[in-house]
């Protein structure tokens, strides 16, 4: 009997602990915070009666924000996208596959426009940012960037090389065949330093991708296991990744993937 009571107490304790770790929406009906209500709609059960009140409320709050926002407010675009989602579905929650499809479509549009611009002007000017020094955050001093020369070399592609790379990336984005041997990797550099991302696979399979500060770049690589490494403003990044479908990696932020 004591064992049963002990087991029941343990289960109850774990249950209460789990509830404490979860988000507290006990006062959500009083909230006028867009992000708080948005989070509730993503987390709440589909049949939660509070949805019928809070969804119209947050949509109205978003409309008001957009109406009164400064023309240069970067949050407006996010609000518009969330509002469009809420008009079609119960919340702004989207699956990984849906997010991947959105990223894919944005990349297709970007590279199509880039290719059209290239064909129209018949010239391509790579980034001329040098970044010969990076900031050491611990000492707040400038230190030489040992990769600056290599970065500039990787960025200095010819118009033909750039066009061929763009076509290859577009072909990969349009390719939905699961048996294909290659796929695209998108790197977002959210730091203020130019970086080189190195991808080391099995044997001699290696790739290098230069990504400008506050920019992004893509590369088509063979599927497989890779060690991703980079020096981001003097800080070392390393992560083992399985590349079997298009992926996005964000560097230079607290949420580096």
Could you walk me through the main structural features you see in this protein, from its secondary elements to its overall organization?
- This protein is 44% helix and 23% strand.
- By secondary structure, it is of the alpha+beta class.
- It has 2 domains: 2-93, no CATH class; 97-251, Immunoglobulin-like (Sandwich).
- Strands 5-4-7-8 form a 4-stranded antiparallel β-sheet, covered by helices on one side. A 3-stranded mixed β-sheet has the order 6-3-9, covered by helices on one side.
- The radius of gyration is 24 Å and the shape is elongated.
- The model is unreliable at 1-21 (pLDDT under 50).
Query: What proportion strand?
Result: 15-25%
Number of strands: 9
Mean pLDDT: 79
Q: How is the largest sheet built, in terms of strand order?
A: 5-4-7-8
Please give the share of residues in helix.
40-55%
Give the H and E element order. HHHHHEEHHEEEEEEE
Specify the overall morphology: elongated
CATH class category label of the largest domain: Mainly Beta
Which spans of ≥5 residues are poorly predicted at pLDDT below 50?
1-21
The profile of the biggest β sheet is: 4 strands, antiparallel
Measured distance between first and last alpha carbons: 49 Å
Any guess at the CATH architecture of the largest domain?
A: Sandwich
CATH topology annotation of the largest domain: Immunoglobulin-like
Number of domains: 2
How many DSSP helices? 7
State the fourth-level CATH superfamily of the largest domain: Immunoglobulins
Radius of gyration equals 24 Å
| Alpha-beta content class | alpha+beta
